[in-house]
Amino acid sequence: MLNILCIGDVVGSIGCGFLREKLPALRRLKGIDLVIANGENSADGNGITPASAQHLLDSGVDVITTGNHSFRRRESYELYDSSEILLRPANYPSAAPGRGLCVVDLGRAQVAVINLLGTVYLESMESPFEKLDDLLSQPGLPKIRILDFHAEATGEKRAMGYFAGTGLTAMFGTHTHVQTADQCLLPGGAGYITDVGMTGPIDSVLGVKPEIIVKKFVTKMPARFDTAKGPCHMDCVIFSANEKTGRCLEVERLSVT
Q: How confident is the model over 65-87, as pLDDT tens digits?
């Protein structure tokens, strides 16, 4: 059995620091074979930089996924092209830097990690449903296939889980920064959670200082989103997969404090 840990959106340097503090012990405790983390907010002020990406990798993350903030920081563009384990959503135009799928060789098994971006309430992109079909039809793709579907709408995420059917081992949603309590094995056999949550400050609004967001809603004026401080949590999910069949056997939802 292969244990794959998927970590919710890491927010700023405070989230990166908390992940580094908690991940090594969690890997040992749960016998984790592969760690996937969404790092599109890992840089202070949004986006991802080479420094924040390297921090995550040095902390024990094996694959970094992203989302609608993939290209917020220009200094990351070259890294997307040079690194096979930093992904951007596969349904970005082909002219965009980087790739949306990678294959990780763990020795006893290979794992395909896919990153897609939803289109409901987000920027117009190629249909993630059609793109997933294209990716899953690639010859030689490993049996174990994990999807980070970075999307706003719960319905779009849920639909993707059912659409994937038996084509995926598991799908975890990201982007909303709030962990959902619907982890399950879908009828097609895939492990699933609508949103895995966030890694960052607990006393916040999606990682941002609450007073900033409250003022923005009250005044409707632009505001700089400064990351909150204080105690953190690391929201994550563990998918346990049969390495021979690629089927998900168990789904465990966690929030580490």
A: 999 999 999 999 999 999 999 99
